[in-house]
């Protein structure tokens, strides 16, 4: 007859913490901490490869305001361009002009790039945001075009608009988790969106 195995008290040994749980706890702690002021060197190094860990910077543009700025820009652009295209199509009696609607993503990309090169779009300025380079240097058109290249995804038939929404959500998540709010498109272009 075997003797019964002694049961270990529940409090004797803690359960192992999984890597995912530790990572989530760390992200939650970062999100709940007040933002801090980083020096110029840390701000400059924000564009190096790899995720920026640590507390978020005090001058980060909140993701909600970034999404709001993009929504304002899109509403202004689509409202004005659709009005112009439809008006010309009706006025000239040329229904083929409605095909210009297919070029709207290209025009939006160009307008975003031009405005970002001047410090920010109408939506960003309305939301109190601006686009800057390393150590708050001005952004040129090339950097702005690299930053906004993802806006050309809707040119891909059928899957393009869905892909653009998916990529936008991915960028939002990465920017929220990054200490300097740098998403992949910002890192590629060496830009940041900061509060004015």
From TrEMBL:
- InterPro entries given in the database record: RDD
Q: Which GO terms describe its cellular component?
A: membrane
Pfam families in alphabetical order = RDD
Q: Does the keyword Nucleotide-binding apply?
A: no
Its membrane topology = Multi-pass membrane protein
User: Which UniProt keywords are listed?
Assistant: Membrane, Transmembrane, Transmembrane helix
Enumerate the transmembrane spans.
67-90, 96-115, 150-171
Localisation: Membrane
Residues annotated as domain RDD: 61-170
Kindly provide the name given to this protein in its UniProt entry.
RDD domain-containing protein
Q: Which organism is it from?
A: Corynebacterium epidermidicanis
What is the organism lineage in this UniProt record? Bacteria, Bacillati, Actinomycetota, Actinomycetes, Mycobacteriales
């Amino acid at each position: 007859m075997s003797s019964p195995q002694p049961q270990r008290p529940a409090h004797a040994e803690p359960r192992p913490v999984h890597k995912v749980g530790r990572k989530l706890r760390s992200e939650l702690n970062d999100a709940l901490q007040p933002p801090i002021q980083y020096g110029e060197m840390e701000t400059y190094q924000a564009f190096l490869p790899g995720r920026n860990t640590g507390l978020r910077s005090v001058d980060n543009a909140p993701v909600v305001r970034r999404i709001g700025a993009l929504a304002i820009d899109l509403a202004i652009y689509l409202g004005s361009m659709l009005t112009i295209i439809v008006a010309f199509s009706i006025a000239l009696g040329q229904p083929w002009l409605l095909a210009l609607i297919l070029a709207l993503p290209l025009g939006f990309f160009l307008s975003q790039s031009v405005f970002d090169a001047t410090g920010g779009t109408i939506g960003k300025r309305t939301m109190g945001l601006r686009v800057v380079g390393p150590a708050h240097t001005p952004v040129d058109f090339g950097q702005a075009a690299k930053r906004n290249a993802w806006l050309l995804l809707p040119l891909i038939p059928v899957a393009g608009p869905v892909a653009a929404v998916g990529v936008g959500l991915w960028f939002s998540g990465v920017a929220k988790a990054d200490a300097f709010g740098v998403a992949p498109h910002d890192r590629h272009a060496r830009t940041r969106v900061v509060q004015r």
